Amino acid sequence: MPRSVNAVASRTRRKKILKAAKGFWGRKSNVWTVAKNAVEKGMQYAYRDRKAKKRDFRALWIQRINAGTRTYGISYSAFMGSLKKANIDLNRKVLADLAMNHPEAFKAIVDKVK
Hints:
The chain is mainly α.
């Protein structure tokens, strides 16, 4: 009995990987074995960096809030602590946006918790 191979599925799988490798440099974009490794590694980086992106943005928001509060003579930690005591539920993303783009609104919040 002759050997049976599912060429249709194999080709589809390879085309999918090569399509994902489009734009890669050199053999990574058109040689199956090299492209497969490059795409797998790229997916690992993508997974890792989706998590890291959240950390990076939180750190950025904290820096912006800290810069905004220090202009009014209060530290970031004291500001956040007094926000909790005053039962003002604004997340760091919103506070950072207010500190950057709407300083008068941010000043009103700082004055309220001082």
